[in-house]
Amino acid sequence: MLRYILRRLVGATITLVIVLSIVFVLLRQMPIEGYFENYDKLSPAVINARLESLGLNDPIAVQLKDFFASLLRGDLGTSARYRVGAPIGSIIAQKAPVSILLGLLSMALAMTLGIPLGAAMARSKGKFWDKFGTLFIVIINAVPSAVYYILIQMYATDLLKIPMLFERGNPVTWILPVFSMSLGNTAYYAMWLRRYMLDEMNKDYVKLARAKGVSTRKITMRHVFRNAFVPMIQYLPTSILYTVGGSIYIESLYSVPGMGGLLVDVIGRQDNPMVQAIVMLYCVIGVVGLLLGDLLMGVVDPRIKFAKKEGAR
Amino acid sequence: MLSVKDAMSKNLEKSVDASNLFQRAKLDEAAAERAGYSDYSYWGSTLRVFSKNRVAMVMLIVLVLLLIFTVIQPYLPGQRNPNTVNNHPATGIQLSNQSPSFSAELLKVPEGTELTVKEYDDAWYEASNVVGSINKRTDFTCLEYGDTWCRVEYDGQEGYVQTSWLKLPDEIPEGPFTVKSNYKISLYASAADITNKGDPVYVEKKDVKLLDEATGLAVTTGETSVCSLPSETGFWFGTNNIGQDLWARVWAGTRTSLLIGVIVAMVEAVVGIFVGVVWGYVRKLDRVMTEIYNILDNIPSTIVLILISYIMKPGLSTLVFAMCLTGWLGMARFIRNQIVIIRDRDYNLASRCLGTGTFRIILKNLLPYLVSVITLRMALAIPGAIGSEVFVTYIGLGLPADMPSLGNLINEGRKLITSPSLRYQLIFPAIVLSIITIAFYIIGNAFADAADPKNHV
Hints:
The complex is a heterodimer of chains A (313) and B (457).
Chain A: H1 2-27, H2 44-54, H3 60-72, H4 88-123, H5 128-142, H6 145-160, H7 172-201, H8 204-212, H9 216-232, H10 236-253, H11 259-269, H12 272-300
Helix pairs in contact in A: 1-12, 4-5, 4-7, 4-10, 5-7, 6-7, 6-10, 7-9, 7-10, 10-11, 10-12, 11-12
Chain B: H1 4-15, H2 18-21, H3 29-35, H4 42-52, H5 54-72, E1 105-109, E2 114-119, E3 124-128, E4 130-134, E5 140-144, E6 149-154, E7 157-162, E8 166-167, E9 177-181, E10 185-188, E11 201-204, E12 208-212, E13 217-220, E14 224-227, H6 246-281, H7 283-297, H8 301-311, H9 316-342, H10 346-353, H11 358-366, H12 371-394, H13 406-414, H14 424-451
Antiparallel strand pairs in B: 1-14, 2-3, 2-13, 3-11, 4-10, 5-6, 5-9, 6-7, 8-9, 12-13
Helix pairs in contact in B: 4-14, 5-14, 6-7, 6-9, 6-12, 6-13, 6-14, 8-9, 9-12, 10-11, 12-13, 12-14, 13-14
């Protein structure tokens, strides 16, 4: 077990280094305007001096080495346009808590809505809940999330008579962002839980239990649900990625002062160092999320072999 | 001279009546059942199972009609250009934020309404029924008093004014009396206000009779529609804030979005199948490619999309490129997993032993197995690509505004949600987008089910 964890940790670190290097090299291809607050007004000498001080004139390998060195020191560089000269680390530290809280809340809500929905769908196959759930899943999966996010913001704020924009101190304004963000994951959980529960229900041991006279309720709760829940764990990383993707929309729609809104903001202002830092942060979240899912899976399901991992997950 | 061979064949022809030699066998159902014959055909069964799914069939019909309409829409009569800024013909002001309506008709006026008209073109008059105006605090004579309209005479001109503007005496005297107004008021040709907030309106020439060439006084000969534009058709979906026709823009946008979706799905299929087959079939490469996959799969596709569109010049090719960059990964992995499962089945082993080439095994033995998976992924790739386009546009890295796409339109509409009267600019593209994506999703899933031989009973 320990060896498995260690192996996965090393693997994830190597992956992370490669991914960050790719992002870094790609972003070096950007025009250099994105490193200056007022590029047009500067003389070539000043520009060159600043490029020199940022290390942008060095060969790409040297830049990469410097980047990782400063990353290890915890230095993410400074913002060029968004908040001139401010260290990016502190800007992110200021913005991240809201995003994390929002993401966790929405994932919790998605579980509390999605898991009962999936279970209800599996139990009433072909009846109302199944049809309702299927409709919900089809709509959420097919329609681009931006569309229903915007429609929810438009009609729900009218209907519930709540402000359109997010205010940190006003709990009412948290409802819609958290709810909208949870929709994708709700559909996802419900879809997979239904599928796994139906698979599980067709297994022999369930038939045996039924033949023995165990009540349907007991079978569902004690056997089917529990066993179906194990493969669900592997969707945790995907749902983290869903949440991250959703947060980019939701935060800028409701003007939440968080990371997703910040990303849209700095892209609009072409602040290269900021874009780089946030994009890399999202990559880290992605890699860590996948790692977490794999490890959890190992903890929950003892059948997973730790020794050799052939092929893809 | 005939050779022996020729002679023999001639003899043969003579002796055998070829028509009786062979007979077409008919399908004898009883015999067929005994022998275990089945007239099963893969595509026939697929089609049959698919056509049993009623929702999917309805969606298919809707989608096909929508696609046909999207393609032929610009060639239909009376369509406007999606990028033309529509200006009012008389004032030159942009027709911005016009509410959706089927016709340009503002209102219908009854027979006998007097108008002043000016020549516009062969079929239309530019009309107003204002014949003049009366300055404020000027005395004029009221000839006939009515609750909403008064017939008045002013400066030798006869016309109608709205009663509510007048400063009336306490007791309305019988017969003509003198009144004035505290405001500058309009003098109408007849007792009806047909002007569109002061903008000129249009009537068809065939509906009015010109009474007086010099002043342009005319009278309607029947019930006449007064239009805001010299045309019978209005803006079906309204106009946007700079007066572009939303109807044309929605369909042009649908074309762009579908184009993106189809290209991305094609590339995804071609690259995904190729990489997946190589990855799954060539054992030596498996290890390396799996490691590469594990790295690439760790990069969230949203981030790749953002990064590529941020680095490259915004445009159609950038978008397509960014989406193609990530899409094939899932397809390749799926194909690879399936190939690994079926490549060593007995029939493939036998095929290989009999000397079938690798390429033929892949093409004839392996890929037909994967048709359902491939079609499902392609069908889902189209709404996926449309959704990605919406996303990229949303964060400000999408297509330029002169290339309407559904993402563009939704993003423009999004900015107006605070004013309820303008929400149609979001609703129309959103509806079209939803129909397309849901249809592709349902059809894709239904087809994947139907193409799975397990469901062919």
